[in-house]
Each structure stands twice: as structure tokens, then as C-alpha cells.
Amino acid sequence: MLERSPANLAVRLKLADVLLTLGESDSTLRYLEDVRQLRPEPPREAKPHLDAAIAALRVRRLTAARTELDRFLRLMEVTAPYQAALAKVDWTEGPLVGRPVLAFNPASLITMRGIAPAANAGIHFTDVTGESGLPDLGGGAAPTALALGDYDNDGEDNLLIAWPPSNVRLYTLRKGFVADAGERVTLPLPAGAMSATFADYDDDGWLDLFVIGTDGRGYLLHNREGRQFEDVTTAAHVRDVDGARRALFVDLDHDGDLDLLLVGGNSLAVYRNNLDGTFTLAPNADGIVQGGTDAAFGDVDDDGRTDVFVTSQVGRDGLFLNDAVRGFTRTADTIRGSGPVAIGDYDNDGALDLFVGGSEGGLWHNDGSGKFTRDTRSAAVLDRLRSAAVGSVAFVDYDNDGWLDLLIAGPQGMRLFHNDGGKRFEDASFVLPHEVQHDSIGPLLVADLDGDGDQDILFGDRHGVHLLRNDGGNAHLGMQVQLTALRTGSGKNNTFGIGSRLEVRAGELYQTRVVTSRVTPFGLGSHFKADVLRVQWTNGVPQTIYFPGTDQDVLERQQLKGSCAFLYTWDGKQFRFITDIMWRSALGMPVGIMGKGAAAYAPAGASREYVRIPGEALQARRHLARMDCDCSPRSTPDRPSRPWTATEPMCWTTCGSTTIATSRI
What we know:
- By secondary structure, the chain is mostly beta strands.
- Among the domains are: 9-91; 123-283, Methylamine Dehydrogenase, Chain H (7 Propeller); 477-555, Immunoglobulin-like (Sandwich); 563-633 and 653-664, no CATH class.
- Helices cover 12% and strands 31% of the residues.
- A hairpin with a 3-residue loop joins strand 8 and strand 9.
- Helix 1 (9-21) runs antiparallel to helix 2, helix 1 (9-21) runs antiparallel to helix 4 (62-76) and helix 3 (47-58) runs antiparallel to helix 4.
- The longest helix has 15 residues, at 62-76.
- The chain starts with 8 loop residues before the first helix and ends with a strand.
- 46% of the residues are buried.
- Residues 92-114 and 625-665 have low confidence and may be disordered.
């Protein structure tokens, strides 16, 4: 059970409880230490009992440990994260007599895997707004912002709706039904919201909220363990958004926290997360110097770094490649389009492609190195959109066939295009209700809102908020992946692994996704299960799971390093562990399960890896840093080669098979 749900809090605590009853102190200690690494942290009133139980187990005082663990369990069992973890476990209750037993022989299994419904067969979207319990905004008010996020960690997404003049309300979603959560949690947002984004900016395991108000100011609300939201805007230094209309949270410098990217203002702005609750405006946006209407992120050139694509109505679109040391470098202006942008691997070749709206927009195919060319195979269908104003675009696999389809919405209505096996897109808007194909569409969200295994659509228009339920999209099976990073250890992954790369193979079907939210869905086509799930965490560490479940939680694996190096820096008082390095020099190791049967291998020669060191972690001293394991540093604490000054660049050469360099302070 723990293999299926490695991040499941209830399972780990139950195991610890049983093991302590059996007198297995060492095993109990191991599981409780694991619990201490999980996000979110236990409540303040429970944490001392966990610490006391661990301390007692270390000296083998089992009676004292039993008392403290019982107190800890009583406090945890009433929390939302524990209850959500318990609900995920498929407990078998009652006798097995009378339960149906299904058995398949190999021949029938092979036959069933080969059966696939025809494209769009029996699939349609049904407007279930009335029966879902979505609120009536009154007076024909159109929503200004929609956002999804599980702010209370109960395992179910919550919905934020904002509408004029300054109304912002939270709702709870339960299997497609909506209930008002405003009585439990209020939001201190006097100016309402024209944009809202849930993100865990402080890596405490609780989703916080960033809002751009109708007054043009930023508001950062810190989540206090799902009980209340506290306005920390002034302390965080994010009040001034310079006219921005959209916010994205992504770890641009790969230091383990989420930075803030503001789009749509006078100039594109990047706020660096300082990991202390504050943000610092990066000069010249670290190389992303233009304004923009929309942005998307992902590793488009497969170098392990998160890149950014920005569209603009007043300037030129730009693809900015992240080289870690010099910041972001703009590539040649080959991509056109001034509207919204979506990123995804629509042809399943392992490289992230783009769709850009606007008069010159369209599909842009990535050759795997970050070079894009226009894909004209779907021009006959998609070129009709060039004269239409596009407000939102999204890649979504609405029929779970394993190929990303395309959803487009705006003032002229909503359109859905089906992906025909990566060859072309075909208009499938007939599966949508007739009225939404012609009404003006505002904010748009796509997610499995009723928990039936396919993607539904939530949107706003001049009549309010509407829910389109996907009926028949789950004829093909799917899987949902949720990443969970450790609180302790490397500390270089954000809570939900935002920006990480996911790869799934099911038979001949191969898919790639970039993680942009808590849950990432995959369609499995005619297959019952995936064969392999591979995670490339934002800190560069790969993790592979064979035969994953359909609802797969992936807990970051704590890596016990062998031949790879550790980086320590002098912070003025002591040597501090920064990170492990050399993940990109695997000397020919297979590193990809690419599409169409191809394989990818790490380079045989030395590769270069860049490590960003926080300024406060590196202070001037005769000894710069310490490199352990199979490395030959120029300077170590025990063997300084020469004094170092803060005005010179820092670098090491020849560390194993990797050339490592870091920038000036």
C-alpha cells in the first residue's frame, strides 16, 4: 500500500503505530522521520508530540514514545490532510462473500487492450451548471477571475470566483458539486480580483493566493494551515505589479522555491523568491526584457532548465532560454502570434511544442533543441482562427486517447480541436453545447471536476459561471499524477514539483508533460495501465516508477549520493550544504524513453551544470567551498589554493566528468 501511495500520511502513521505496538523501535523511528519530511508540516500543537516521540525512540524509551505518539495521532486524525489521505486508501470493509471476482486470461486481455472507441464516439459536453450548485452572481454579472486549488489540503480542489464590483468568494468542490466555503475562510481583498493564482510560495505545503486586484495592485495572501488567509503583501514587497494582468509562479533559478512572473504590464517583471517570505524584483527581468500579453514555461531545449515563452501585442514574441549563469537569452524571432499561448507535446515526440493565438499565430513544432517551425498540417482548420480574437487556449486530452487536443475560447465563442494521432487537428466543436460555440467566453479552467477520470470545462461569460461536464471522455482510461517534494533533504524542489518534467509510456504510447499544477492528467488510450512513469524533478534528479497506479502519488525520493559531488559554502559562520551536483553527466546512461521507440542517452563527454548560490550563503573567506566525493576542487576548506575575493568569478574545473562553473556574486 505504501508503494502505491508513498506520500500518504495516514498509511505512514498507521504503520508507525503498529510497529511501535510490536516493539519495533527502529522501524517506527524511520517512519516517523519520514512523516517529519512530508509537506505540510503538522499543526503547531501536534509537532511537539512528534518531536518528543522521535526523541524517546532514539534512546529506546518505548513507553514514553507510546504516550507521545498517541497524543500526536489524536491531534492529526482530525486534520484535513490526514482525512484526505485516509480517503485515498481503498479500504476493504466487510466480508468478501458475494463480491464479484473478475478474471481475464491473457488472450482476452490482449484483445481488450486492442479495442479502442472511434474518435469522439459517444463523447459530448453537458452544461450541468444548474445541478452543480454554482452560484448565481446576480444581475448578469460576468466573472473577472477563476482559480482552482486545494487550499485546505482535504484532497478536493477549491474554486475561487471573482465578479464585479469587488466580490471574491471561495467554494468547495465535491465530485462536481459546489458548496460555499466563505463562512469558513474569508479573503481580505477589498479591491476584488481580475486575476488569481494559487501557489505555495513559501514551501510550507499549503497553497497561498496571489491576486491582481481591480485597483491594479498585487495582493499576496499567506495560507495559515487552511484556516485563514493573511495579507502579507507589504512584507513580501509585491504590491507594485506595473499594470500586469496575469501571474505565473515557477522556479526560474532552480533553487527550490517559486518565483513570480508578471505578464501583461508595461514590462514583463520577475520577482525572485528569497525563501524568507520576501521577493526581490530582478533587474531587467533577468534578460526577459519585453512586455507581454501571455507567457508559458517549460524546458524546450532539454537542458534541464526552465525556459519562458512570451507573447506581445506591442513588441515581438520571444523565446527566452535559461542558461542559469547569464540568465535568459532571447533566441531568433521565428515564432509569431500575439495572443494567449499554450505549451505541450502535441505529437508525442518528447519535445514541448507551442500554440500561439493571434493573426499570425498557429502551431509551432519543436525539433527538440528549442528550434521551432510552423506546423502547417492543420492550417486548413486552425487558420480560421486568425481573424478571431482569442482569450484563452489550453492543451487538453478530452478523450483520454493519449494525444493532446486543443481548446480555444474568446469573444467569438469556444472551439475544440481533436488531435488525430499527432498528424493533424480536426474541428470537434460539435461535442460542445451549441450556445457556447457562439457566446463570448471569459475566464477558462480545465480539470477533472467531478472525479470521473476525464477533463471537464469551467468558464465564465456574461451570464455567470458555467460547468461543462465531460460525458464519455473516460471510455479510454487515464491516470493522474501528483508530485510531493520533501520538506527536508535537498530542499531544491518546490512542494508540488511545478516545472518538473513527466514522461509516461503505456505500450507504444509515449507522452511528455510539464507540471503546472497540483495534478497532471494523462490519457492511456486503449491501455489499462501505464508501464513506466518518469519524473525529472526541477533539481535535475530523475525518478522512475514502473507499473504506476492510475492515481499515482510520487514522493520525492531522498537520494543517498555515491559518486556525485556535494557543494558546501561558507556563510560567514559555518560551512552550509547547498546541493548535490553532476546530475547531467551520466556517461552514456539511458535518460529518456522517447517516442516512436527512440532512446536518449547522456553525453559521453563532460557536460556543464550551473549551480546558483544564494548571496547570503556565500561569504568571503580564504576557503571558498568544499567538494566531496570523486572531485578535484581547486580550493577546499582543508587545502586552500589561494585567497579568494568577492570580486572574482567562482569556478571549479574537472569534477568527475563535469565542468562546473558559477557566476560572480
